[in-house]
Amino acid sequence: MALGIIMAVTMAIMRMGTNPILRGVSWAYIWFFRGTPIYTQLVFWGLIGTLYPKIGIGDWSISTQDIYNAAFAAILGLGLNEGAYLAETVRGGLQSVDKGQWEAANALGMKRSTTLRRIVIPQAMRVIVPPTGNETISMLKTTSLVLAVPFALELTFVSNALGNKEFLPIPLLLVAAIWYLAITSILMVGQSRIEAYYGKGFDGEKPAKAAHGMSRRQQSILASGTVKDDPNLEVTP
Fold this sequence. Notes:
two-stranded antiparallel sheet; mainly alpha; about 70% helix; flat
């Protein structure tokens, strides 16, 4: 998921940029990894060591198996696939931020990278976090497909192997299901906490009633809750 999030943010920013080459690379990446099955991708990454048994430059070379094992292939395959799906989620979250935020930042002379980091992304997190949490839980269950690499230390594979060895396939599958449920429950609690953190100021607050004839700017200031409904009224202690 960490690799997927890094790829997603990078591809989303590239696709929203003005450089046609970067936009094309981003589009091709998302098109390929979303258009092919994850199982097929995992098989391909698992065969890299067979396709390229040695990696070298000039007279120096090293065996691919020494630096590219099954665990690395599984993480790479899952991360790159997840990045393609999350890229659209991140792009949708960034586009949900009002364009006036960009314009205000440009008027202040802020760089595009600074605007993204300090203004746009913090506001977009409210939209990005819920689907990202769902994708994280989905990723947990997708790890059962890394047998295609093959990665023999995955929970479902180990449960099946032990179940067949002990002639207890059903009980061992139930054990695996309990582990999945336990980890999923922890992730759901974490997701709800993160959603609550980034949802502050958006949920559960009733905006103040706008006075007739107020400008949009005045209404925004009044809705922020930093002033009284009628600033001309004095509060009696």
